[in-house]
Design goal:
alpha/beta, TIM Barrel, 10 helices, 8 strands
């Protein structure tokens, strides 16, 4: 019924109790989840989860927060993405909130991932925080998205403005909402969610972080994505089943899975 489009169940907080995590998914009708790569050294763990569990998919990429880690190149990402359980490139993007100083290495890493997406034909998972202007600029310069033969992608854990959402959707990207949208102080984000069409929306946990209301304060997990869906269905005034069906189909369409 629900699909968690972005989680990190390879992280120790979740991997140490994986059977319980998978059971909670089942109890909450979360049929599938995408486990997202953040570094190349940890990528084998991400891939192993997808190889072992048929309802878990995986991505390959290096998160912009990780400066002191193995730097990917286009050929390496494309080669790793050839595995049938790898459905996306990323997560990638820019983060000017956690890091400061000369961040040109972040921008170059982002360009590498966009080029790998175009070369592999697999969609991008983009992280952007306090960097939307440069994120959109580089996306346009590198022809991310559906322009000029590229592929679509997703702006994950979206917290930006309606203008950024619209610009992203113009490039063929989906907008994914996490538990943040359920927070009482997220009125601006909730206004954006009202405007994003269901046909361009995904839901996620970004677990083990950002547990949604009413689970705030707990370690997040894929089973909690149901609460994100319930909140968004109420916010948009649509039946929960409709939101579940449409966002799940969006996931299948974007990542080309059944």
């Amino acid at each position: 019924m629900f699909i968690d489009s972005h989680c990190h169940i390879n992280f120790p907080e979740l991997s140490e109790r994986l059977p319980a995590i998978l059971e909670k998914m089942k109890q909450n009708q979360v049929t599938h989840a995408l486990c997202v790569s953040v570094t190349l050294p940890d990528f084998p763990q991400v891939l192993s989860l997808a190889e072992t569990h048929p309802n878990i998919y995986a991505s390959v990429g290096v998160h912009p927060d990780y400066e002191d880690t193995a730097e990917p190149d286009v050929d390496q990402l494309v080669q790793l993405a050839e595995h049938p359980r790898i459905v996306a490139i990323g997560e990638t993007g820019l983060d000017y909130y956690r890091l400061s100083g000369d961040l040109e290495w972040q921008r170059e890493r982002f360009r590498t991932h966009i080029r790998a997406s175009r070369a592999s034909g697999k969609p991008l998972i983009i992280h952007t925080r306090s960097a939307s202007e440069d994120t959109l600029r580089i996306m346009r310069e590198e022809k991310a998205g559906t322009a000029d033969g590229g592929v679509a992608g997703v702006m994950h854990c979206f917290t930006e403005s309606q203008a950024v959402a619209a610009a992203s959707m113009d490039m063929g990207f989906y907008i994914s909402f996490s538990g943040i949208v359920t927070f009482k102080n997220a009125k601006d984000l909730q206004a954006v969610a009202r405007e994003v069409p269901l046909e361009r929306m995904l839901i996620e946990t970004d677990s083990p972080y950002l547990a949604p209301v009413p689970m705030r304060g707990k370690t997040n997990e894929p089973g909690f994505v149901r609460h994100v869906a319930e909140f968004l269905a109420d916010l948009k005034g649509v039946p929960l089943q409709t939101l579940a069906d449409v966002t799940s189909q969006n996931f299948r369409t974007l990542f080309r899975v059944q």
